[in-house]
Amino acid sequence: MSGRNTFLTPHRGLAIALLSLFCLTLFILRPQEPAVFFLWLISLSLLVIRFRFEKTDAWLLVESALWIIVAVFIDKAFLLAYPLAMLLIYHGRHYALALPFLLWLVFAFLDFEVLGAAFFVSVSGILLKEWKAAQETAQKRVDTHREQIHGFEREREYLLANQEEVSRMSALSERDRIAQQLHDDLGHELTGALLALRAFEVKEPESSKNDSFRSLQGRLEASLAKLRETVENTKTEEELGFERFRDILQNFDYCPLEQTRRGDIEAITPMHWHLLASVVKEALTNVQKHSRASKVEIDLYVDASIVRLLVKNDGIREQEGKDGTGLRFMRRRLEGVGGTLSIHADYHFTIVCVIPLRLEGTI
Amino acid sequence: MSTVFGLTFKRMLKQPFVLSLMFVLPFATLFIPLRPDETTPRLAYGLFALGLMFTSLMLSKQVIEDRQQKTIVRIAAAPLTHKDYLLGHLSAYMITIVVQISLFWALSFVRWDAPASFYFAAFAFLVGFAVMIIAFSLFWHTLFKTYASSMAVYSIVANLMALIGGLSFPLAIMPDNIRRVAVVLPTYWYAYGLEFVTDKDAAGAILSLCILFGFAIIFLVVGSKRRLG
Known about the structure:
The structure holds 2 protein chains of 2 kinds.
Chain A: H1 10-29, H2 34-52, H3 57-73, H4 82-90, H5 98-107, H6 112-203, H7 211-234, H8 242-251, E1 257-263, H9 270-291, E2 296-302, E3 306-313, H10 325-336, E4 340-345, E5 349-356
Parallel strand pairs in A: 1-2
Antiparallel strand pairs in A: 2-3, 3-5, 4-5
Helix pairs in contact in A: 1-2, 1-4, 1-6, 3-4, 4-6, 6-7, 8-9, 9-10
Chain B: H1 2-13, H2 16-22, H3 42-59, H4 61-68, H5 71-77, H6 82-111, H7 116-142, H8 147-165, H9 176-182, H10 186-198, H11 202-223
């Protein structure tokens, strides 16, 4: 499709064909008589009104019947039903193909002008209908492509945002690890040294009079205080990994939630917890929004090589056979690290997420 | 609707040229004398109808200007339906034209000595023609983007319609071939209706009037579609 707006659309083509047909009808009817012209004008008005305001097929057939009845009194007035037949053919009602020929047979068998008009109606109607169908197919294809492009764009934005989030998470978890190590290793060593110094002071009271001893003790105490302050400042206030996962489960109050944990939970890294928290958040949001569930079950299982999270609810699934955007994005994200996300919607709605313990690629 | 109606009048008053033209030029037809074989002033009424054709197009200038200056887009965003906008405009034009018609009709009553039945029927025809021509002007403006181009083409088309339709000469001298084509023009049915009135054929006259209203419906249905661009 070129992006150019074309003037000639099937709808306009139909308008032109109908106008031509009206001119042809006018030529055949030769309506110098005001009554005949008035009928012709009424027929045109009804058609114009139909172009503005949609009417049903039943109405079209009633209108055609009206013109056929008028034809009994006014010669060839049945021709005014021809535009209606064309309109019906255009709307895919193939039975209307018979109408012009039937009227010709009944009312004007030897009149070839009328036969020509009948052919014009049938051929134009079919051609216009095919044109409309072809245009609709092309339009549908363009719409599908646009929808796909839009989907990819959203996915890209989501993944980019996620990438930033993961970088931030990595930095925060590294800070946490350093704070932990300072506290556990250096802090314990310094405390040990200070306690040893105090024990020495108790054993040798004279040592406290020694300037070097006092200075050493003071510096050790100051170092310990400084270390405590540093650890306090380095430790993040934001909840990471498991805490976030736990909080999402605790804050869920839509329906009862049953959770089980199996295997070596300690083997799950902060990165895994981050992914699991995102999956569980998405799954529980879906439960709240769409499922009308009365119970949710969550099962977390860890073995030597994988972490498996299963979220199951007993509610209904609104969009049968079509994954939500959030879950689709989640699946892409997990696939990026070698994981999988599968959805089963047979009896219960179940989401199963499997992540390898050894992450690959980028999250 | 009443707001639009009032504003349309106010805008009309800002067009003194159009107003003076509509209340001066068409009245020149009052000076056309009756031929010895004529009993009714059909030619004067025909030419007055030609004047009406231009009057209504000039009055409905506001509609195309609103589209041209994008005022219609702002109106579309306002709590005002398109139906109210159109009704306000069209009724204001109709009232102005009915005033013009009434004035002409009253003066013609004094000017010519025709049968009273003609005057009553002719008034109905003038009103019918006014309704049709206002709807036609609305439709005509939808075909163009600017008032200048609309008016330029219209001045040719209106004169042709008047000529072929028999507004500027008696229908009796119209050749049959032209008559066959002229039936599609509303002007023909106005002239034809006046002829029926002269011949005192009530059925023919009423049918002609109905045809004028039929044309008005078609033009109104096509022309009333909202166009923002």
